Amino acid sequence: MKVVIAGGTGFLGTALATSLRGDGHPVTIVSRRPRGPDQVSWTDRSALDGADAVVNLAGTPLDSGRWNDSRKAEILQSRVHATETLVKAISEASRRPSVLLNQSAVGFYGAHGSEALTEESAPGSDFLASVCVAWEAAAKKAASMTRVVVLRTGLPLDSSGGALPRLALPFRFFAGGRLGSGEQYWSWIHIHDWIRMVRWAIDKPDINGPLNVTAPAPATNRELAGALGRALHRPAFAPAPAFALRLLLGEMADALILGGQRVLPAKATRDGFQFRFSDLDSALQQIYR
Fold first, then answer.
1. How many CB atoms lie within 10 A of CB 207?
2. Do the Cβ atoms of 269 and 216 come closer than 8 Å?
3. How far apart, in whole angstroms, are the C-alpha atoms of residue 110 and residue 108?
4. What is the residue-averaged pLDDT of the chain?
5. What pTM, to 2 d.p., does this model score?
6. Average pLDDT over residues 184-193
7. Distance between CA atoms of 161 and 157, rounded to whole angstroms?
8. 89 Cβ neighbours under 8 A, 6+ residues apart
9. Does residue 47 have a pLDDT over 90?
10. Which of 22, 65, 92, 139 is least enclosed, having the fewest CB within 10 Å?
11. By the 8 A CB rule, do 214 and 248 touch?
12. Residue 281 pLDDT more than 80?
């Protein structure tokens, strides 16, 4: 199975490519700065010819700088433009891929307190929700040409990258604790289950449309802090107040930290996906053992 991963040099793309190559599948990375024979630039659309699957993870990191109008425009356009470029390349391919898996995020749903959210739930109305709606709409334009799966990913957990090392850092200095009230739900997934669910969606032809890529037991931020403390053998008694986070991060604090979504993987559960890490304690214990 030949797989093309756009934005494949980041945290998730590197992990997915390593897994696929470990099982003997050829992987081509589409990158702004290609290095090596297995990487191509965005202008080389021939890379999609003969690919069995395309996975689009491209986009400016949400936390690459304090949000202002230009940063927010970059966040939106980096995702939409990359997706539109891939859709056009698919339309021009002599043999089109069987599936396009396009990254999105649980931010699609906006902040919802403790309400359980599934793939059938409506989108939110804040900035991140609007980005996800536009991102998904760009991907859905390929639906007449190939199967499209939209990966509404939660917080991927691994010690090698993503948000977890930064969340863990205060705990290592005995200064960890909840963020804000701690009651906001964070929908998470172990990196191994993220990889497995993406590969499962590639192989399962009846999976279409949005797919919540989250563990079945979303946790509050307070619960995450407690589990992280237990995994690192540290206390979790030093909260970071909401006003301080807003002062430091501005609008990004509410969007990424103080808001939350209780997102359930309804489609994956219904169609038989088996999680290896369904609860937070087992996930973090495995990561930090």
1. 19
2. yes
3. 6
4. 95
5. 0.96
6. 98
7. 8
8. 45, 47, 48
9. no
10. 22
11. no
12. yes
Any bridge partners for residue 263, and if so which? 117
Domain count, the chain: 1
Length of the chain as a residue count:
289
Distance from the Cα of residue 78 to its chain's centroid = 15
For residue 150, give the nearest of 46, 49, 42, 267 by alpha carbon: 267
Cβ 195 vs Cβ 15: under 8 Å: yes
- What letter represents residue 9's amino acid? T
User: What is the average per-residue pLDDT within 153-165?
Assistant: 96
Residue 133: what pLDDT? 98
CATH at 264: 3.40.50.720
Share of the chain above pLDDT 70, in %: 100
Nearest to 178 by CA among 234, 229, 114, 221: 221
CA distance 2 to 25: 6
Structure tokens at 217: 């037991």
Residue 247 domain boundaries: 3-288
- What sections of the chain are H helices per DSSP? 11-22, 69-92, 127-140, 164-172, 191-203, 221-232, 242-249, 251-253, 266-270, 280-288
Contact indicator for 104, 151 with CB cutoff of 8 Å: yes
Among residues 150, 149, 228, 148, the alpha carbon closest in space to that of 188 is found at 228
> 77-106 in b/e burial notation, b at 16+ Cβ within 10 A?
ebbbebbebbbebbeebeebbebbbbbbbb
SS3 category, 193: helix
Q: Is the pLDDT of residue 35 over 90?
A: no
Neighbour-count burial of 2, counting CB atoms closer than 10 A to its CB (0-12 exposed, 13-18 middle, 19+ buried): middle
pLDDT band at 104 (very low <50, low <70, confident <90, very high): very high
